[in-house]
Amino acid sequence: MESEKNIEKGSDQQISEMIRIGVAADHGGFKLKVQLASALRDSGYEVEDFGANELVSDDDYPDFVIPLAKAVAKGDIARGLAIRGSGVGACIAANKVLGARASLITDSFSAHQGVEDDDMNVMCLGGQIIGYNLALELALTFLNARFKADERFIRRLAKVEALEINR
Q1: What is the CATH number of the domain that holds 96?
Q2: Residue 139 and residue 42: Cα distance in Å, rounded?
Q3: Helix (H, G, I), strand (E, B), or coil: what is residue 90?
Q4: The whole model's pTM is what?
Q5: What's the half-sphere exposure (Cβ side, CA atoms, 13 Å) at 165?
C-alpha cells in the first residue's frame, strides 16, 4: 500500500534526524517548556522553540502548538513537545494537523510505547499536572524511543492515515 510506504519512509527519516526537536507552550506550560528546552539542549538536542517567548496569561495555545505540529508533519523537526496547563488542548490542536500524531503522556510506558507501536511524533504534557523531573524523564523516554515498523503497526497506521486523507 502507498500509505504504508509513506509511514515507513517517514519513520526512517525521523530516526535519522532525531537530534532536532521542537517545543511549544502557552502560559499554562511556559515555565516547564523553558526548563525542558534548557535541559534538552544541555543533553545535546537541537531545540527549536515555537513559543510562547514570554509569559502572557491570555495567550492562545493553537498559536504555538499548530506551527510545532506542522513542522513535525513536514519533517522540519523530528519530534515535538507541546505543553499546556493540562496538555489536553495541545493534543487536540496537534492532532488536527495532517501527519501529526500527538498524545497526552503522563507515564514512561506510554512515552515509549506511543512511539514504538504508533509512531507518535508529538508528545503533549500538562505543565500544571506533572513536575519537572517527571516531565524530563518522559521527554527523554519519548525522544529515545524508535518506531518498530512491524507489519501490524504499519497496517494500523495506514488505516489512520486513510482517515486523514478522506476527511
Answers
A1: 3.40.1400.10
A2: 13
A3: helix
A4: 0.85
A5: 9
Handedness of CA 27, 54, 144, 11 (dihedral sign): positive
Which of 64, 65, 113 is CA-nearest to residue 93?
65
Residues 82-114: tens digit of each pLDDT = 999 999 999 999 999 999 999 999 999 999 999
- Residue 14 maps to a domain: yes
DSSP E strand boundaries for the chain: 20-25, 46-49, 79-84, 102-104, 122-126
Task: Name the grid cell of 140.
Answer: 527523554
**Residue with grid cell 516531565, as numbered in its chain:** 135
pLDDT reported for residue 1: 39
Which tens digit of pLDDT belongs to each residue from 71-80? 999 999 999 9
Predicted confidence (pLDDT) at residue 18 exceeds the cutoff of 50: no
Query: What is the span of the domain harbouring residue 88?
Result: 2-162
Residue type, 124: C
> What radius of gyration, in Å, describes the C-alpha atoms of the chain?
15
Number of domains comprising the chain: 1
The answer to whether residue 108 is domain-embedded is yes
Q: Would you say residue 167 lies in a domain?
A: no
